[in-house]
Amino acid sequence: MMSKAGLKRKSKAASEIPSSSLADMAFLLLIFFMVTTTFRKEEDRDVVFPDAEATEKLEQPRKDILHVYIESDGAIYINDQLYATEQVSNVIAPMYAENTAMVVMLRSDRDVAYNQIDQILKELQAAGAVRVSFYTNLEQRVTRERR
Questions:
Q1: Is residue 37 part of a domain?
Q2: Is the dihedral of CA 19, 21, 24, 29 positive or negative?
Q3: In a domain, 18, yes or no
Q4: Is residue 132 part of a domain?
Q5: Helix (H, G, I), strand (E, B), or coil: what is residue 25?
Q6: 3-state class of 132 per DSSP?
Q7: Is 38 a member of any domain?
Q8: Distant-in-sequence, close-in-space partners of 80: CB < 8 Å, separation ≥ 6
Q9: Which residues pair with 82 in a beta bridge?
Q10: From CA 116, how far away is CA 70, in angstroms rounded?
Q11: Helices marked H in the chain — which ranges?
Q12: pTM
């Protein structure tokens, strides 16, 4: 604090946030989240699918397909969680209400009794799921040439 001819008084602190390093921080956060995020994989199920003479590929986005696995012992898995047959409609109804374009893909073992498939179909009907598809393998037929 010198006289008017001497040193000047320091101005107030800058009220702006420096934005020169914001891009660097954004990229570091992006890299951090990319490295630390884990993507959930579906568990492999021990299911032998039935054969069919003809199959049709389902042209539906993956997000609109709900896989319901039925193993040979009668266990029912929806989104890799075990459910009882009576719980199927309670689990699928809210999902179907959220996404009416959803297709329920039944992936059952070929040794599952049809009465259990029928019970599950009735549960899906109670849940309001109108688009149901069965997953099958294409039957490989060996044909011989006639001589």
A1: no
A2: negative
A3: no
A4: yes
A5: helix
A6: strand
A7: no
A8: 42, 43
A9: 77
A10: 9
A11: 22-36, 88-98, 114-127
A12: 0.60
Q: How many domains does the chain have?
A: 1
State the helix-helix crossing angle for 88-98 and 114-127, rounded to 10 degrees: 40
- Report the CATH number at residue 107: 3.30.420.270
Q: What angle do CA 80, 40, 82 make, to 5 degrees?
A: 10
Counting runs of H as helices and runs of E as strands, what totals does the chain give? 3, 7
**Who contacts 102 (Cβ-Cβ below 8 Å, separation ≥6)?**
64, 65, 66, 95, 96, 129, 131
Residue type, 10: K
d(CA 96, CA 129): 6
Coil, helix or strand at residue 139: coil
Tokens at residue 66, please? 């709900």
HSE on the CB side for 93, CA within 13 Å? 11
CB-CB contact of 104 with 141 (8 Å): no
Per residue in 28-47, pLDDT (tens digit) is: 999 998 888 877 666 666 66
CA–chain centroid gap for 55, Å, is 23
Instruction: Note down the domain range covering 83.
Output: 51-138
pLDDT, tens only, 70-129? 888 888 998 888 999 889 989 999 988 888 888 888 888 888 888 888 898 899 889 888
